[in-house]
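User: I'm putting together a teaching handout on how sequence relates to shape, and I'd like one worked example. Could you take Catalase from Imbroritus primus, show the sequence you're using, and then write out its predicted structure as tokens right after it?

Assistant: Happy to. First the sequence, then the structure tokens directly below it.
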Amino acid sequence: DTGTTAASLPFNANKPAEYGAATAVPITGQHTVPPSPDATGSTLSETNASGKTGGPAEAGLNRVGGDLLRVRADGGGQVMTTNQGVPLADNQSSLKAGLRGPALLKDFILREKITHFDHERIPERIVHARGSAAHGYFECYAPLTDITCASLFAEAGKRTPVFVRFSTVAGERGSKDTARDVRGFAVKFYTDEGNWDLVGNNMPVFFIQDAMKFPDLVHAVKPEPHHGMPQAASAHDTFWDFVSLMPESTHMLLWLMSDRAIPRSYRMMQGFGVHTFRFVNAQGASVLVKFHWTPMLGTHSLVWDEAVKISGADPDYHRRDLWEAIETGHYPEWELGVQIFTEEQAEAFSFDVLDATKIVPEELVPITPIGRMVLDRNPDNFFAETEQVAFCTAHVVRGIDFTNDPLLAGRIHSYVDTQISRLGGPNFHELPINAPLAAVHNNQRDGMHRQTIHRGRVAYEPNSLGGGCPFQAGATGFVPFPEPIAADELRGKPEKFAEHFAQASLFYASQAPHEQRHIAQAFRFELSKVTVPAVRERVVSMLRNVSEPLAAEVAEGLGMPLPEPMPRATAVEVKPEVDVSPALSQLARPGDGGIATRQIALLVADQVNADAVLATAQALIDRGAMVRMVGQHVGIFAADDGTQLDADASLENHPACLFDGVIIPDGQAAITLLSDDGRALEFLRDQYRHAKTILAIGAGRQLLEAAGIPLDAPDPGVIQAEQADARAMAATVAALAMHRHPERETDPPRV
Ligand code: HDE
């Protein structure tokens, strides 16, 4: 006996008798009652019932009423057990011969706990390893029965549950969110006629035209195999070596070097199905379609210097943003649209719609809105849902079919195949997050980790012993579109696939001046990390076929002479239908003009002007913005009227890159303090350099001067006001709604 009384032990309130002879008699543990879902502090959001959470199905919704409640576990108020359900007296100390004795092999409780732990990890995805996901629903605007018999598009207002995972491509599971990269945009629709996975990206084209090249592409972009560097970055030799030998990647490289590759938020990026798909109606007639997701908040990006700094300040930046928006009830929303065209139209295009390195310009085929998607519930468990979800392009439903895009063909195989090793066998469709809400009946049996208990002795077809069941649906089931094919077997590509530059030029020409500038800067940065001069040269020679000014700017930035243009793969002159497509600029989709969920820093220090702090905070909060007081430390500051202000962020733990805008309140003493603080000055310089909105009230102007912010030229993003009055706040809100003020940017930056 150590002589210590149980009550005085500070270590583990649930296990008062942890030491000495008292351990011979296990003591019943204690538990605290968890807060109700409504209580503040709860991280659960079950109140946001979606079809997948078990809320009652409303009229006109899917007839399936499945939910995840059946598999949810919650230990609140429960006794602890082994995996066999045996209640545990003690799961904190191993079983030993004597208090100081050796641990005993028969301790099945220790062994079960450690064994399970030893096997907790599963292989990460080969690509798109890092991601974040959420539940929600898709709502159809109007019946599309004339062009597709897909049940989710059958009725106006019909809701289908969805689970959506956003991801980066190159980085490993624990890598940063703000790498320059493509973003995955994968949607699983749990329709009442089975699951449909629309596994897209935030860019409408891809690097390669044929699935055969995918392993090469991924080997080139992933960390180099000898030393495992760099993590989550395309800025290295092997990537640029490969793509510069593959001119078909030019168009995608323009997108990758554009601001699209560093989105401000998953909630503020477009999504694309990339390939041309088919809609098929009940009569078997087909049209070609391209899928587009458009965010209601508009398309917005970071700037590169900001993305680099966020990588250090908050590697989970996009994950946190999505999670917090949903927890605070600001449910992200996208509109689904389709470009609809016929085979005959497609044949007349200057490009091939089976070529995934090409878009169909919106000026050629406009987007028809067909529904909206709302994400309104965070997952309960990251592993069970976000990690185990298995998206497969092969998962289509009646009314939706493939085209002969050779990239898509490889994907139809790859996704199912990869889940078998990643999720440990062919029954991954039974994992709760993957299981369709529609019933599953077939003669597939057994395999690793089978959950279903099939009844009866019939597992074959045809059968008479089971009454011929399960029976084939015939014409009411999935019938492939009967595309006529008569051709020689060969390995090759259509003529039109050989044109690699026209749409890259179109993309570049369609960008706003600051977007073009960012593209040139991104090429400069990435290629400056390439160590082999011949690789840099090849990329610049490629760019000469896209835009001479762009090639010249990049060459100058790399201190190299202009190389000869890259020889073209085809002598055939392509006459593009459009030379400029305004829809390709992010400015074309500014969003709803609001500032909801924008992160605003309110700088505070002792003696800050209380009126200015409270008035600005209120005005921004009223419009849905997220306002944080950022102090020289976290905790309490005394304002000039004695009000206690509680800062929940500090200049040290929340640098400028994490905010969309900053307010400098009035208060001479506070401004003097901040003017002597290098962190405060750096905060303002970064806000300015990253083209964000700054509001300075009264004496706040002195902080701008101390930080060296240029105040000579008018700048709609730098607002100075004597008071936090309605006029000042209106100007600030308007400036924040513009997202950034790129007209302020210079290269190199002035500040
Ligand atoms: Fe993928 N891709 N991909 N991909 N992809 C995977 O599947 C593949 C491509 C995309 O959040 C893998 O489950 C091949 C285009 C997303 O879980 C793998 C080819 C587009 C996700 C795979 C492509 C995508 C993946 C890795 C060329 C946009 C993440 C783990 C033929 C239209 C889904 C996995 C999630 C994931 C193969 C090209 C989007 C290996 C062979 C084009 C969003 O199966």
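A couple of points you could highlight for students: Residues 1-7, 37-66 have pLDDT under 50 and may be disordered. The pocket of HDE is lined by residues 125-128, 131, 165, 167, 184, 186, 199-201, 206, 211, 214, 274, 356, 391, 407, 410-411, 414-415, 418-419 (CB under 6 Å).
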